[in-house]
Amino acid sequence: MSPTLAIGGVVIIGGGGHAKVVIESLRAAGETVAAIVDADPTPRTVLGVPVVGDDLALADLHGQGLSKLFVAIGDNSLREKLGRKAREQGFVLVNAIHPSAVISPSVQFGEGIAVMAGVAINADSRIGDLAIVNTGAVVDHDCVLGAACHLGPASALAGNVSVGARAFLGVGARVIPGVRIGADTIVGAGGVVIRDLPDAVLAIGVPAKIKGDRP
Ligand SMILES: CC(C)(COP(=O)(O)OP(=O)(O)OC[C@H]1O[C@@H](n2cnc3c(N)ncnc32)[C@H](O)[C@@H]1OP(=O)(O)O)[C@@H](O)C(=O)NCCC(=O)NCCS
Predict the structure, then answer these.
(1) Residue 14: is its pLDDT beyond 90?
(2) Ligand 1 and 134: CB distance under 6 A
(3) Quick one: which of 32, 92, 104, 141 could link to 6 by a disulfide (CB 3.0–4.6 Å)?
(4) Residues annotated catalytic, as ranges
(5) Could you tell me the residue ranges of all domains in the chain?
(6) What integer pLDDT is reported at residue 5 of this predicted model?
(7) Cis omega (within 30 of 0) for bond into 177
(8) Does the pTM of the predicted model rise above 0.85?
(9) Does the pLDDT value for residue 2 go beyond 70?
């Protein structure tokens, strides 16, 4: 028998560890989570939310009146692609912003963004669609985060930093003021970025040095 789905609830794409953190952020913000679709459609629950199929189930869920969706996939390119597909199917991408995050009223948000517990985002920063600002990350004033980028847990951007689309900063990475990080670039865990980085490179260490193209 199919599970009864919460009317008005959010559909989640992805049923892994990142999805668990997103589900708890959404609940803490007062949302109901209705259903999960996952590449592994084996019927099960994740934090009490039923996995109802893979992404082929999305059309049916939309037909049942569910219109809010969140893409809880860590892979930046895949998250961007799935977000685009979900919008084409008529879903609205909601933001999952944990109420413990401290966010300046002047911050501008796109759609489909995760802001996890303990984050701080300061004045006039802009956060692009489908970005992840993970647990305890800090974004100081006037930063620009590109679409589907990911700031790892406890990473920190000083003021006026820009992070390109789909770029990824590992856990604990740090960036000094005014630096620009290119699209699709990866900064390894604990790296300290003190110079601009071009698109699609891997940089590691303190100070962060380019080790080649991103894997
Ligand atoms: C940088 C990173 C992407 C490289 O991954 P990888 O290509 O699989 O790298 P490997 O583990 O094969 O290591 C390659 C070399 O880089 C070194 N290295 C790896 N990560 C490093 C890091 N963060 N800082 C410094 N050196 C690092 C390794 O010691 C190894 O050195 P060696 O060749 O001298 O032995 C990865 O180590 C990393 O830091 N990922 C961040 C993960 C994260 O924070 N996730 C958060 C999820 S929410």
Answers:
(1) yes
(2) yes
(3) 32
(4) 141
(5) 10-94, 97-204
(6) 83
(7) no
(8) yes
(9) no
How far apart, in Å, are the Cα atoms of 36 and each of 117, 148, 172, 197? 21, 20, 30, 36
Which atom from ligand 1 is nearest to the alpha carbon of 171? 44
Q: Which superfamily does CATH assign the domain made up of 97-204 to?
A: Hexapeptide repeat proteins (2.160.10.10)
- Ligand 1 pocket, mutate which of 21, 76, 133, 204 (most atoms under 8 A from CB): 204
| CA–CA dist 135, 192 (Å, integer) | 18
Q: Is the CB of 105 under 6 A from ligand 1?
A: no
Topology classification of domain 10-94: Rossmann fold (3.40.50)
Helix (H, G, I), strand (E, B) or coil at 133: strand
| Alpha-carbon gap, residue 68 to 56, rounded angstroms | 16
- The percent of the chain in helix, strand and coil, each rounded to the nearest 5, is 15, 30, 55
Q: For the residues of 137-174, what is the DSSP string, one character each?
A: -EE-TT-EE-TT-EEPTT-EE-TT-EE-TT-EE-TT-E
Q: How many CB atoms are closer than 10 A to CB 111?
A: 15
Phi, psi for residue 106 in degrees, rounded to 5 = -90, 0
Please write the tens of the pLDDT for every residue from 186-212. 999 999 999 999 999 999 999 999 999
Give the Cα separation of 130 and 79 in Å (integer): 7
Edge-to-edge strands of the sheet including 174-175? 102-103, 120-121, 138-139, 156-157, 174-175, 192-193
